[in-house]
Design goal:
The complex is a heterodimer. By secondary structure, chain A is of the alpha/beta class. Chain A has a single domain, classed as Glycoside hydrolase/deacetylase (TIM Barrel), CATH 3.20.20. Chain A contains eleven helices and nine strands. In chain A, helix 1 runs parallel beside helix 9 and helix 7 packs parallel to helix 9. The two termini of chain A are 33 Å apart. The chains are: A alpha/beta, B alpha/beta. Chains A and B meet through helix 7 of A and helix 1, helix 3, helix 4 and helix 9 of B.
Amino acid sequence: MTLDRAYLEYPKRRHGYDHTLYPWSNLNDRPPVVWPNGSVAVWVCVSLEWFPITPADRPFRAPGHMQTVYPDYRHYTARDYGNRVGAWRLLDAFAKVEAKASFATNAAVAERYPELLCAMIEGGHEVIAHSTDMNGTIDSSLPEAEERALIGDALGRLKACGISPTGWLSIARSQSWRTLELLREAGLTYCCDWVNDELPYRFTNNLIDMPLNHELSDRQMITIQQQSVDTWAQSLEDAFDWLVGEAAREGGGRMLPIHVTPYIMGLPYRIAAFERLLARLAARPEAWFARGDEIVTSWAAQNPTLGLNQEGNRPQEDGAVDA
Amino acid sequence: MNEGAPDPGLYDYIPYRGRPKIVWPGGKTVAVWVAPNLEYYEIDPPSHHSRKAWARPHPDVVGYSHRDHSNRVSHWRMAEVMSKHGFPGSVSLSVALCQHHPAVVADGVSRGWEFFSHGIYNTRYAYGMDEAQERAIIADSIRTVEDATGQRIRGWLAPALTHTPRTLDLIAEMGLEYTCDLYHDDQVQEVKVAPNARGGRLASIPYSLEVNDHYGFFVYNMSGREYADTLVRQFERLAEEGEASGTVMCIPLHAYLIGQPHRIGPFEEALRHIAGDGRAWIARAGEIVDAWRAQQ
């Protein structure tokens, strides 16, 4: 088969990105960010997920979802273990080092497990909206009206539980072309889906991205790459050490996102390694354990508008807003 | 190549044992080059009949933004570590990066890096291109890199490793001197290309899939420390064998992988080891090809 002539045409080959979702800037040319404490913000984000035993394949089946012929007791219960047991171990682990964390929470978890929601709130943790349940996936094949309704449903059900989150995490960080606008329309301040940076930045529509590094997550390293929890913890500590050094050299704050999943990290044979990691980081004067919304608030106060030089960038040169 | 034949006829079989001795400058035993891939992946590329650009419907947020990490954060992190230990880059470049993010390309230029082409975008595949189309992307590469860096490209790594039966003949005819697309040897080798009017020859310089950071992290699922250890083992063996005849070690990188905060520290230790060993000729791809060619 030959290729159409258009395959060698590049209509978006220009200065800046091939889209207008956010402008370009490189981290080490931006004005330094200063955190309230320490030089590395340690952001622990826990995903609280409820997987219906009746999985949906549209737009796509979420990672971790049912795998066998119905009824998949094996995966339904092994995932729910995270909500019954694992999440409580994580809450205890945070309490031991007095760390505040973010919990990206399916609306269904907040509704179904009020004791867990209560404990999160009492512990001083943040709730980030994380769709309705693990059937609530998003990509560009989802019609706009359905996507708007899904986001509205997730936020409405959390609100009925007394929670008004400012952040959003999509399942598998998967968005459509419309998601950024729909999240802004829904009144949210930030999302955690785009992993292209290590500090918050603003999309063109002023929604903020809080990059939740998927490469550092327990799902990526332990479930997908099949590494041990000790290797995971060592990697996280290596990352922290590097960021401490970089923050000192560059004179600007850095961020370490630690994304964990109760049914993965909250197992009896893994939790001690997680607790040791938290204790080691908590003992470091450079670490500022903070919730996602605290980091966003601190960053936004230092980067108030999307306009001239909002990220130390020269908008006339980035070319990304000229469509 | 012999199109359609079971043996593509890319090179002669030359046994590893008993080869003429290749000598590297300064009596070093292994030529070490680092090949950062500076890439641009389109968020919404046109579809291609034989390969899908993204696993997910566009925008593939994780796929796209993971790679974008290179151009916002990790390029500079990787480049600083390389410069600190005396490793210049020989860049596998999606040449459209010269338009999209010239600051990244300029950073490489300012560090004295060499540039060769990795196609226009890493989301445009050569499969199915006719001869005129393939000539067009080679000419575009030569022109674009020359405009952006002042350098005339000497090498080729096919975009997303996609080829046609004509690729090697065409790049030799259009004046390129080395290919990074063949993985049959640990030394530079002559590639058999169709005779061309300018007498252009083509060398195959060992690049590597096996110690490519992408393979390390996503095929072999290594931790950052395991990958760094792999590089040291690769170096130790090639440095030892290079006493008989100079070997080549390539470290192919992607900033969005090696420049992640949990990997860059162990990687720096591997570079420190290689630089401090004394047996490495740390060089650019073109210099290695030149030194080899002079001994043929």
